[in-house]
Write a sequence for this structure.
């Protein structure tokens, strides 16, 4: 409802908050507080129409500040990474996204397709995405879509679907890596109706843009996965929680849902006669924390999007305190191909004993950025050098991030890893949602770290103390703005803050943010020393 | 209250009638709101759209003074649809058949006409309350301050007895007492019909008992009520002692009240301030105030608690009991040789069966609800468990009566009065608290915006409001909290003495004044 | 069966009830686990993270306030590691606050942060940087000081307003370090749904929300003494503590263990106490002179006059001409003495109180 007012008026007025408050029985003060939480809800005109320029870590490398400066007259404001790192720099005008490397070259163009797989390996989620017309219902169907779901609905029972997904080894592709089959099983068994399937499309992690590619070019794959989840768990309602920065994707999804409804794949008989599944798109309003599943659920319910305390988990107490599956876009997009090709097929896509594939969003100082579906266990250098063409001419790779920004940096001596969770966790990092940003040897890593930490500080929800204060203190120290001017004391403060954040934060944001400083100290001690010394003058 | 305050969090259906709880008993209201947060349903019957109405599931904006009609309608729905609790009615009540037959004859169209409520809303409320597992009823002066106050209460009792929502956790019939120790004044026997502990004066056994205790035979006849006494001032009543009550401002029909007190030969007033009433006295005696006085009070849930002095008395002020005892001693009345509040309280415990198990020391932590018949008794948070004190609960045939005065061409608007959150009674206390003025600087007449226009008034402007007894000038506030045709004000401010208007009639049994209904005329006025 | 309901707490097996959190169990065993966002009357929130304890098998320490005990858990509440985290957290909190030492008149819980910072010796001056919060000096209400420079965003005020009062007058706006306690549209409390019950003030652990009325007496010398009594207003009978300094009433605080109110109060009970020591109090008896004017008199004279008047009325009109009105505002002893005066004095039941009005 807030979005309706935001779109109509261009901002959320006090009157609008009053109306929504009455309609939804949410106290005015709470709703007002919640509106102020989101980055994109303007409370004054001109508000929504003002250009918003991505100043994420990749766009910063390619001139976002210049665009911001050039558009300053139009009242332009920065926005955090908006998921166009393979085709910079996005500028959001209301419901239109323009892209270009300078303010003069801004134009509307569709988001890039994943490049053809350079390794020639079998793909799961990208298996059909490059087929012409794939985004339409007919095109999807023609290229094999909905086959897995249809046969599952026709020839099996819900438990069969859970079993196949469990056996396939599919695990959450949003970062947490929880086994999808087990999650579905838990929701299927949990008491309470109606149950809900939520697709987490709040792709807020800087350097991640896979969900956008999947939803823009293969929306029915995600819908198919959601219907399968609904069938498997007995859920009657579903939501796609889409980040605010993808307005074009919103239209694509709404069209795809209408098509699926027209084909009776969604609606009153979606899971069989008299077994409904209704699907709605809900739009975020600019809050990274809403990618955290319990914040997302609070946001869906119109509550203040603080993360919830767990247990209980969403599988028993999710949307409206009822059993809920929350799955990432990529996870759900994997379901159709798995149902069509079988559990063994999917397991076999990975290398060694790793099951399946993972989309890596690769960007930054790299010749061919883009989304690459890699077999889990692929050596990182293969992706960077063989598949994506390595760094620019004459440059060397100084660092790559993992999990967007959340996994911190791998330094020049740490690139010999394989792309899978066990391998990366052994190096103090993690794969997460699969964003990899490359920084070549011209980059100031302390400044890169400052930008990253500033992002986390901006996105900290403000609930738990270690994250709220810690992200700010770390940002200040990386900016040379406060903190000891003696290296040992500086390092000790950074380390102590990092320790307490990693160990006591309430959610993944606060636990992950200090990986930035930890990996900075580990790999770039000399740059840190220069930074601290510089601060002494 | 039949049930303790903590039970307010336990019902699944709550029925509030004639109680503006969020303003008059705010802390009790917090418990009610927690019950709602836990899923309980709320029925609110009140002419004004009070805050409780905002959070209710069924809101019944009945015409002032039409409570009996509403309750008859609800009773009708219950017996018509067979929603009564048959087991309870059979085991624990009498006179069911008569009441049932009476209720069956009630016409819902008539209910709707008298109350101004859609019949469907009355039916919904009846079904909700009757269908509850634990239904609890709360009321305040909106029920009792009518000429038909007793009828109102009996109608509520009927509802409770029909549905069996009594004698169990989270149920009950619960009047919310308005003053910190009004319950206690009754407990102590400051009533014309009861000795301490609600022992009836017309029972010869009690007469004998107190003859031995007080050394003098006390009449078997009930005494006068205050209302009667005020009426007879200068005729048969010539001496009066008033403790801590600003009768002149708080009682209805101020002009009558002033004439009455002035006609006395002798008036003694005990108070902490020189009130308007004190100004009329022959002798004014300064009492110690709250915070200066050790003592005991009973709250609305019959919890007996200790008051403690924190600071020395102002000036030469003395505790009320000391003052009264000194007068008694000077009149050579025996039995007033008390040395402390403790002595007085322990005597009260000794002479009152419901207090027998208590003494000054035992109530230090405030954990007892009376009755506490002996020292081994844990107190009685919930009354009427298993059986009523007098055996069976009596269902009573009640009929509707119009208020003493009804609106007419000359006085076309209903005035109803009450309290506000920030003020208390006649503001002898809140009026002297720093900061309260910031929130509530002056008296306001709350009028529906349509009426503001009809009577040519302005929001924020001034109105003259008149009844057959007098008139006041008051500032206008337009608000849809008041329904069209009904206006509201409190009686807190002496410069807007609303009680010169009220007092059209009294309940024939309790002599409680009809403060809640008074036809008035309203017109624009110059600022005073 | 016994095993089903025990956990190992710092080396001892202890029983617990279904639904108990680790914090509640630790509290019961006097482990003194520190907290700032915890108020036993409120739903656990899990923000301050000071209550973290080590739980065997868990990768990280867990917040004990939000973790339900399950049979067989092994929990350590005070290891060097968690104690170190607690100190760091308190150093961080101290670094964002303008002031740690606040006057105890600020509120019931106002000393909690100070006490913990001192207990953990956390005034190290580390982690200096920007301070959060912005004081609302523009909110001129006479009761509640909103000095958000001292706010640590524990949300206790927001939660007590919602969960205990049911008023939902305040909320939290913004996010991250810019998180701020707010009313609807950031206006003053007077324009919000606030009823000035003062509950937010008395759960605030830092004095950011403070009893402005009581703080007027901050400079009065002397120790604060508390006297437990019952609120003088409506019939609910809330327990309060009168705060006095040198025989002066300087404030009222709710009694958190008050049986009728469980720590709740309303604007009257909380703030309307200064009638007691008001300059207009009656300080001496008054007797009406022959000229019709009320004048101060001695107790002896006044009591004689009071008694003599009744004697005269009785002689002239009989005992039935005398009537007593007891107060619903005075203690039992007043009402009992008054009714006894009427009955033992004149043998009649001419006594009433104002309960029917």
């Amino acid at each position: 409802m807030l979005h309706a007012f935001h779109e109509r008026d261009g901002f959320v007025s006090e009157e609008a908050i009053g109306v929504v408050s009455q309609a939804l029985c949410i106290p005015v003060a709470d709703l007002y507080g919640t509106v102020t939480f989101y980055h994109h809800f303007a409370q004054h005109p001109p508000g929504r129409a003002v250009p918003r320029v991505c100043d994420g870590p990749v766009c910063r490398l390619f001139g976002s500040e210049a665009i911001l400066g050039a558009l300053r007259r139009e009242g332009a404001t920065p926005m955090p990474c908006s998921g166009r790192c393979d085709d910079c720099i996005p500028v959001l005008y209301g419901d239109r996204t323009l892209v270009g490397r300078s303010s003069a070259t801004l134009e509307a163009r569709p988001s890039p397709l994943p490049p053809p797989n350079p390794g020639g390996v079998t793909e799961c989620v990208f298996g059909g995405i490059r087929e012409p017309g794939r985004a339409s219902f007919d095109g999807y169907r023609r290229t094999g879509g909905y086959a897995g779901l249809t046969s599952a609905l026709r020839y099996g029972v819900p438990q069969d679907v859970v079993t196949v997904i469990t056996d396939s080894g599919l695990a959450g592709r949003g970062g947490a890596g929880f086994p999808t089959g087990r999650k579905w099983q838990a929701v299927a068994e949990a008491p309470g109706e109606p149950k809900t399937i939520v697709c987490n499309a709040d792709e807020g992690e800087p350097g991640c843009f896979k969900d956008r590619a999947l939803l823009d070019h293969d929306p029915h794959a995600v819908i198919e996965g959601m219907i399968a989840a609904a069938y498997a768990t007995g859920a009657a309602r579903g939501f796609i929680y889409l980040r605010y920065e993808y307005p074009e994707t919103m239209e694509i999804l709404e069209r795809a849902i209408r098509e699926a409804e027209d084909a009776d794949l969604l609606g009153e008989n979606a899971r069989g006669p008299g077994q409904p599944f209704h699907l709605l798109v809900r739009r975020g309003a600019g809050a990274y924390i809403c990618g955290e599943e319990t914040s997302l659920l609070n946001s869906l319910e119109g509550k203040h999007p603080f993360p919830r305390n767990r247990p209980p988990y969403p599988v028993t107490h999710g949307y409206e305190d009822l059993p809920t599956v929350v799955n990432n876009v990529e996870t759900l997009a994997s379901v159709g191909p798995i149902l069509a090709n079988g559990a063994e097929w999917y397991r076999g896509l990975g290398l060694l004993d790793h099951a399946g594939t993972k989309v890596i969003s690769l960007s930054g100082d790299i010749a061919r950025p883009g989304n690459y579906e890699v077999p889990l266990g692929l050596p990182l250098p293969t992706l960077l050098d063989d598949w994506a063409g390595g760094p620019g001419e004459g440059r060397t790779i100084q660092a790559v991030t993992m999990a967007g920004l959340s996994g911190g940096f791998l330094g020049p001596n740490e690139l010999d890893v394989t792309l899978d969770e066990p391998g990366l966790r052994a190096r103090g990092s993690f794969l997460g949602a699969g964003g990899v940003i490359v920084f070549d040897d011209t980059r100031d890593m302390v400044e890169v770290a400052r930008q990253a930490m500033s992002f986390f500080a901006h996105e900290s929800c403000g609930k738990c103390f270690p994250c709220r204060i810690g992200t700010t203190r770390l940002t200040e120290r990386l900016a040379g703005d406060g903190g000891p001017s003696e290296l040992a004391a500086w390092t000790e403060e950074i380390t102590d803050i990092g320790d307490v954040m990693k160990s006591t934060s309430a959610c993944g944001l606060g636990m992950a943010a200090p990986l930035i400083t930890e990996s900075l100290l580990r790999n770039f001690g000399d740059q840190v020393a220069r930074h601290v010394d510089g601060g002494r003058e | 209250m039949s049930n303790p305050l903590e039970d307010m969090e336990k019902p699944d259906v709550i029925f509030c009638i004639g109680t503006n709880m969020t303003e008059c008993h705010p802390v009790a209201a917090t418990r009610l709101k927690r019950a709602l947060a836990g899923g309980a349903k709320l029925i609110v019957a009140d002419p004004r759209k009070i805050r409780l109405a905002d959070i209710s599931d069924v809101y019944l904006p009945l015409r002032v003074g039409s409570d009996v009609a509403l309750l008859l309608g609800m009773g009708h729905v219950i017996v018509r649809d067979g929603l009564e609790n048959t087991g309870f009615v059979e085991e624990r009540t009498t006179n069911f058949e008569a009441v049932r037959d009476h209720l069956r004859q009630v016409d819902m169209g008539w209910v709707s006409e008298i109350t101004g409520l859609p019949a469907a809303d009355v039916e919904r409320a009846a079904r909700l309350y009757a269908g509850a597992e634990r239904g609890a009823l709360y009321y305040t002066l909106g029920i009792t301050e009518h000429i038909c106050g007793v009828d109102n209460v009996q109608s509520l009792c009927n509802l409770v007895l029909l549905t069996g929502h009594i004698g169990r956790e989270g149920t009950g019939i619960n009047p919310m007492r308005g003053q910190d120790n009004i319950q206690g004044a009754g407990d102590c026997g400051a009533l014309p019909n009861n000795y301490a502990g609600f022992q009836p004066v017309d029972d010869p056994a009690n007469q004998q008992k107190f003859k031995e205790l007080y050394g003098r035979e006390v009449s078997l006849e009930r005494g006068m009520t205050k209302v009667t006494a005020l009426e007879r001032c200068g005729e048969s009543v010539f001496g009066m002692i008033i403790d801590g009550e600003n009768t002149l401002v708080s009682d209805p029909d101020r002009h009558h009240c002033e004439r009455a007190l002035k006609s006395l030969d002798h008036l003694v007033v005990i108070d902490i301030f020189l009130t308007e009433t004190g100004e009329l006295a022959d002798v004014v005696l300064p009492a110690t105030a709250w915070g200066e006085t050790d003592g005991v009070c009973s709250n609305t849930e019959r919890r007996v608690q200790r008051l403690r002095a924190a600071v020395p008395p102002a000036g030469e002020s003395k505790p009320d009991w000391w003052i009264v005892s000194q007068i008694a001693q000077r009149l050579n009345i025996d039995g007033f040789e008390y040395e402390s509040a403790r002595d007085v309280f322990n005597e009260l415990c000794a002479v009152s069966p419901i207090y027998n198990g208590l003494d000054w020391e035992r109530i230090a932590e405030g954990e007892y609800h009376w009755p506490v018949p002996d020292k081994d008794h844990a107190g009685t948070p919930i009354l009427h468990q298993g059986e009523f004190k007098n055996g069976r609960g009596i269902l009573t045939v009640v009929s509707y009566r119009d208020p003493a005065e009804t609106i007419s061409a000359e006085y076309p608007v209903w005035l109803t009065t009450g309290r506000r959150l920030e003020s208390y009674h006649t503001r002898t206390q809140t009026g002297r608290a720093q900061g309260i003025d910031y929130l509530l600087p002056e008296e306001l007449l709350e009028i529906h915006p349509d009426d503001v226009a009809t009577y040519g008034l302005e929001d924020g402007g001034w109105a003259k409001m008149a009844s057959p007894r007098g008139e006041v000038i008051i500032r206008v506030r337009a608000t849809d909290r008041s329904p069209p045709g009904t206006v509201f004000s409190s009686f807190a401010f002496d410069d807007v003495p609303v009680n010169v208007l009220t007092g059209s009639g009294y309940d024939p049994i309790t002599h409680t004044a009809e403060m809640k209904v008074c036809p008035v005329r309203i017109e624009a006025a110059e600022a005073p | 069966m016994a095993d089903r309901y025990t956990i190992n707490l710092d080396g001892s097996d202890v029983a617990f009830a279904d639904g108990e959190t680790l914090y509640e169990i630790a509290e019961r065993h006097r482990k003194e686990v520190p907290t700032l966002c915890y108020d036993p009357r409120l739903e656990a929130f899990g923000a301050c993270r000071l209550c973290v304890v080590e739980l065997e098998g868990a990768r990280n320490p867990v917040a004990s306030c939000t973790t339900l005990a399950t049979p067989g858990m092994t929990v350590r509440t005070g290891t060097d590691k968690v104690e170190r985290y607690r100190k760091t957290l308190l150093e961080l909190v101290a670094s964002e606050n303008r002031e740690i030492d606040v006057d105890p008149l600020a509120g019931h819980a106002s000393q909690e942060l100070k006490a913990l910072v001192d207990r953990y010796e956390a005034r190290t001056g580390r982690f200096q940087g920007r301070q959060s919060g912005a004081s609302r000096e523009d909110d001129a209400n006479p009761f509640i000081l909103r000095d958000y420079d001292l706010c640590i965003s524990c949300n206790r005020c927001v939660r007590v307003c919602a969960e205990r009062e049911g008023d939902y007058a305040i909320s939290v706006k913004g996010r991250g370090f810019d998180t701020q306690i707010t009313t609807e549209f950031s206006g003053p409390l007077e324009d919000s749904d606030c009823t000035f019950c003062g509950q937010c003030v008395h759960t605030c652990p830092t004095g950011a929300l403070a009893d402005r009325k009581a703080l007027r007496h901050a400079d009065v010398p002397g120790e604060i003494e508390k006297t437990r009594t019952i609120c003088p207003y409506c019939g609910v009978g809330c327990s309060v503590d009168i705060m006095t300094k040198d025989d002066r009433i300087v404030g009222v605080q709710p009694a958190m263990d008050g049986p009728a109110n469980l720590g709740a109060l309303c604007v009257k009970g909380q703030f309307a106490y200064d009638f007691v020591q008001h300059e207009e109090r009656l300080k001496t008896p008054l007797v009406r002179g022959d000229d019709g004017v009320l004048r101060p008199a001695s107790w002896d004279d006044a009591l004689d006059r009071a008694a003599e008047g009744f004697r005269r009325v009785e002689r002239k009109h009989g005992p039935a001409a005398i009537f007593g009105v007891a107060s619903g505002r005075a203690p039992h002893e007043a009402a009992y003495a008054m009714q006894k005066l009427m009955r033992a004095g004149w043998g009649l039941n001419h006594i009433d109180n104002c309960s029917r009005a």
Remarks:
- The first strand of chain C starts at residue 6 and ends at 9.
- Chain C has three domains: 2-78, 91-271, 286-356.
